[in-house]
Write a structure and sequence with these properties.
Layout lengths: L2 E4 L3 H12 L5 E4 L11 E4 L2 E4 L6 E2 L3 H8 L7 E5 L2 E5 L2 E4 L11 H12 L13 H9 L1 H16 L19 H10 L11 E5 L5 H11 L3 E2 L6 E3 L4 E2 L3 E2 L2 E4 L8 E3 L3 H7 L4 E9 L9 E3 L9 E3 L11 E6 L11 E9 L5 H13 L3 E3 L1 H4 L6 H16 L1
Parallel strand pairs: 1-2, 1-14, 2-10, 7-17, 11-15, 14-21
Antiparallel strand pairs: 3-4, 5-9, 6-9, 7-8, 11-12, 12-13, 16-19, 16-20, 17-18, 18-19
Helix pairs in contact: 1-7, 1-11, 3-6, 4-5
Length: 396
Amino acid sequence: MKYLILGGGPTGLTIGCKLKKAGIDDFLILEKESEAGGLCRSEDVDGSPFDIGGGHFLDVRKQDVNTFLYQFMPREEWDEYSRDSRIFIHDIYINSPIEANIWQMKTEDQVEYLKSIAIAGCNLDVPKPVKFTNWILWKLGKKVSEDYMLPYNRKMFGEDLDSLGTYWLEKLPDVSFEETLLSCLNKEPYGKQPAHAHFLYPKKYGYGEVWRRMAEYLGDNIKYNTAVETIDLDAKIVNNEYSADMIINTAPWDSFKEIKGLTEELTAEIGELKHTGVVTEYIAEKLDTPAHWIYYPDEELSYHRILVRHNFCPGSKGYWTETRKERYVHKEGETAFLNEYAYPLNTLKKPEIMSKLLSFTEEKNVFGVGRWGEWQHYNSDVVVEKAMAFADKIIG
C-alpha cells in the first residue's frame, strides 16, 4: 500500500480521515486493540460513559481542530464548559492554578506563600538551575513547590524527579509576586488562564465517541487486534506481512520487539526512553462539588487526580481516580482500567534521542507523529493539529 499507519489513536485516525477525505484510499491503520481511540477510548460503566485513559477534553481555542472533528460529531452534540479545576491543599479546596488562588486560603497561609514567592529565584534574577527540583523551587518559590508541585509531580512521574529535564517547563509562567499580592488584596485571581479554560465535552457520550465515529468512517482501512511487533525500516515491512511506500508511526517506539535497520546506538537509546502507566478507577459516590476535576498533592493518597464526571457528563454518576501504575492497589470488586502507556516522560536525554531517531527514520520514509511517535506530552487537540498538518504535507 502507499501508507501504513501504526496505531489507531487520535493521531492515526486523524491522518487516516484526512487521507480518505482527500480521495486517497491506499492506506491501512494497524491497531492492537479491538477498537480505536487509544487513550481517548470510553467504556460504559454503571450506566454512563467512563473515559478509560483519564481526563480528556477538547479545548475551544483550536478552531481548525474543532471544525475538522465536527465533520464526524457535529457541534450541536457537544456542551461547552468554563473550566472549574481545584486543588485539595491544607485541608481545603481552592481553585487552580494555585498561584492565582492563594487568596482562598487562611490569612496566615497567604502570608507564608507571599513571603516565599517574593524571594523565588526567578523574581531575584538568580541564574536558572538545571536540575528539575531546583528549577521548580527557582520558578515557583519554596512554598508552592514543596506543598504542591513537587509532591504532585512525584505522584505522577515517579520519585526521581531529577531524571527529568526542565526544557518542557519553559511554558510555565513566572509566579509574579505583584499579581499574587493583588489577588490576595482584591480576592480574585490574577495572571494567565490555565489550558482548557473553556472546553467541549460530548452531551450524551464519553470523549471516545468522536474517535469511534472516525474509525467507523474509515471502515476497512483499519485492521484491529493487530499488534505491531517488528518493523523493517529498509524494506518498509511490518510484522513481515504489511509493506508500504511510507510508514507513519503513532505508537510507542519502545513497544516493538524489533526495529530492523536501526543502528545499535539508536536501539540502545530507545531503551532509555521512559513513560508512566496510569490506572483509572470508578468510584460510585456522588461528590458535592461543582469542580470538573481536582488535584491531590497529598502523597498519603494513592491517586493524583479525580474527574467528577457528573459535572461534565449529564446523567452520569460518581467519579473516577487517576493513579500512577506503581502506586495503585486494586481492591476486589472495583472497576479499573490499566493504561500501560499514559505519559511520555521528559527525561534529560529525550530531546537528543528523539531528534536523532526521527531524523534517521525519516531518511527511510518512516515518520513518527503524535504523543508517542514524537514522545511528547501532547493533549488530544494538539495531536489532531499535528496529524492534520502532517497529512496535509504528504497529500501535498
